[in-house]
Amino acid sequence: MKVYFAADHAGFELKKELLDFVTTELGYEAIDCGAFENDPSDDYPKFIAGAARQLSHDVEAGIDSCAIVIGGSGQGEAMVANRFKGVRCALYYGKEGREQVDMTGNKLGMLASTRMHNHANALSLGARFLPGDEAKEAVRIWLSIPFSPEERHLRRIRMIDELTAGEAGLA
To answer: CB-based contacts of 53: which residues, under 8 Å, 6+ apart?
Structure first.
């Protein structure tokens, strides 16, 4: 599976650390979409858009891939990524205080929930909130969790995709 990475100056160092971790320790193909230098005046939308655009093309072509985008808070990065068709970007700041229990009784942390229930194919990390080791563990967990193809999840993903296309009658 391909993993697209993008970060601005605030996420630059963490991105370098995670690129190495994902390729050497987890064995995925990692593609760096920028920033390629640590420039404090850079603008995150162009880097994040590069990764999200590639992921969107892969989704359209049926290619198994995902993206990890990193910024200071991760908020703007998630907003940019979610502008692209087929991209479902979840934001992660760190360990949650408690687990949720879904309607089938499964206990799920935030990372598991985004993958299993929402079929998130992009993960936004807030570099100012996550130390490197915690970010690595989050990425390892997130990449290892498959989507649950239960009908209710599939139905909701279709609804999200229709909203993106402007076709859902959910007023």
So the answer is: 84
